[in-house]
């Protein structure tokens, strides 16, 4: 009897192979042939799941946000102190700090590539943006934010800060250490919170 293959699992495997190729060769090296080879599949098998390279890369991009959102949700669902959860989420979003290094790097590659292709950017599909909105909502619920802050503007500012920090961690890996990234996040939190949460 032939072995049944979980289509969703196989598509994720192909997307993860695409990530590896992109990290090694850049987006210009992410050909269907290279990705199929990395995934251990024939080109025909890869085409069964993704009929175009564009569809494959779009799926690989969406998977990064899905994984970030999944990890953030897991953190917020655990039994830790609420303030600890907020810090853990923020530290996870920076490539030098958390387990999401690969996803963070791939996410930024896709994001900057969209600029060159003149594609519209939608923050509401970005895992990091959704994580920051989640963090800000939790800080509102915990009454941690300074009263004079405008929530929408501070959410956008925090997102821009975290994106910049993540990009800097990739561009200057020796400069931005785990400790320095954490210090900068805590410094930002002190500027928007009524009390020290670190």
From TrEMBL:
UniProt KW Glycosyltransferase keyword: no
Cited PROSITE patterns: HTH_TETR_1 (PS01081), HTH_TETR_2 (PS50977)
Assigned keywords, A-Z: DNA-binding, Repressor, Transcription, Transcription regulation
Residue ranges flagged as DNA-binding region: 31-50
Pfam families tied to this protein: TetR_C_6, TetR_N
Chain ranges of the HTH tetR-type domain: 8-68
SUPFAM superfamilies: Homeodomain-like, Tetracyclin repressor-like, C-terminal domain
Domain of life: Bacteria
Protein name in UniProt: TetR/AcrR family transcriptional regulator
């Amino acid at each position: 009897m032939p072995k049944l293959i979980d289509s969703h699992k196989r598509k994720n495997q192909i997307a993860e192979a695409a990530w590896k190729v992109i990290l090694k060769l850049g987006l210009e090296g992410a050909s269907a042939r290279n990705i199929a080879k990395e995934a251990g599949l024939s080109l025909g098998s890869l085409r069964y799941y993704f009929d175009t390279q564009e569809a494959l890369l779009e799926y690989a991009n969406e998977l990064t946000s899905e994984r970030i959102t999944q990890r953030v949700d897991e953190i917020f669902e655990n039994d830790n102190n609420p303030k600890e959860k907020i810090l853990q989420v923020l530290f996870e979003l920076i490539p030098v700090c958390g387990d999401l290094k690969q996803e963070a790097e791939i996410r930024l590659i896709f994001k900057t590539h969209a600029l060159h292709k003149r594609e519209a950017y939608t923050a509401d599909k970005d895992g990091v943006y959704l994580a920051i909105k989640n963090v800000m909502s939790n800080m509102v619920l915990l009454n941690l934010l300074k009263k004079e802050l405008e929530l929408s503007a501070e959410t956008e500012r925090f997102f821009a800060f975290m994106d910049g920090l993540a990009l800097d961690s990739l561009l200057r890996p020796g400069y931005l250490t785990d400790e320095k990234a954490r210090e900068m996040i805590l410094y930002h939190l002190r500027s928007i919170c009524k009390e020290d949460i670190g």
